[in-house]
Write a structure and sequence with these properties.
Blueprint (H helix, E strand, L loop, with lengths): L2 E13 L6 E8 L3 E7 L1 H4 L3 E8 L11 E8 L11 E2 L9 E7 L4 E3 L1 H5 L36 E3 L3 E13 L4 E5 L9 E6 L2
Antiparallel strand pairs: 1-2, 1-12, 2-11, 3-4, 3-6, 4-5, 7-10, 7-12, 8-9, 10-11
């Protein structure tokens, strides 16, 4: 499996010179990531590479803490990657679809209409039920609100994964990759991109 660590730059658009069709894309910067460790089936029970990118200004004894972004990428047994090597955006050449993992934008405390797409109540004719969630539980039995009930609460700011995202363009010279559509998170947020099997 192929994968890279990237940082979201922002959104743009690309025009197809043949058809003139405009595609909205998210541009991500993916400098060469360093392979800190190789995990093997014999020692760790599975094959993976620990990738690290975006060095911190202050160095520490623990190599993992010298980088802002450290992720584990599952590999095939015969991947041929060694510790200390670099993995750049050029490794994604030939990949048409990817899955991306990032932290979504935090939107603070939100009600059920914004958070869970509830419908609102009547606005007029004496109604006092406008944006309330309505009944949330049963009566004497079980005499509590069930776990998982859709209620007001904090919206966003969670790890989100999108699958089957189309790769529109790769610029290995500038360490840039353009993905079709929107990518979770704010500008400069860190994104883990890997091949979608």
């Amino acid at each position: 499996m192929k994968g890279i660590l990237a940082r979201k730059i922002g959104m743009s658009r690309l025009i197809d010179p043949e058809t003139g069709r405009i595609t909205a894309v998210t541009v991500l910067e993916a400098p060469e990531a360093k392979v800190l460790q190789i995990k093997t089936t014999a020692k760790d029970g599975y094959d993976a590479a620990v990738l690290a990118s975006f060095e911190r200004n202050k160095t520490r004894k623990n190599a993992n803490k010298n980088y802002k972004f450290v992720q584990e990428l599952r590999l095939d047994a015969d991947a041929g990657i060694k510790a200390g090597e670099g993995v750049g955006v050029g490794s994604m050449e030939g990949v048409s679809r990817v899955k991306i993992t990032a932290t979504s934008k935090g939107k603070g405390f939100a009600g059920v209409i914004k958070r869970h797409n509830f419908s609102r109540g009547p606005e007029t004719h004496g109604s006092h039920h406008h944006r309330e969630p309505g009944s949330v539980g049963t009566c004497a039995k079980p005499a509590r609100i069930m776990k998982g009930k859709k209620m007001p609460g904090r919206l966003g700011g969670k790890q989100t994964t999108l699958r089957n995202v189309e790769v529109v363009q790769i610029d290995a010279a500038k360490n840039l990759i353009a993905l079709k559509g929107a990518v979770p998170g704010a500008k400069n947020s860190l994104v883990f991109i890997r091949e979608d099997a």
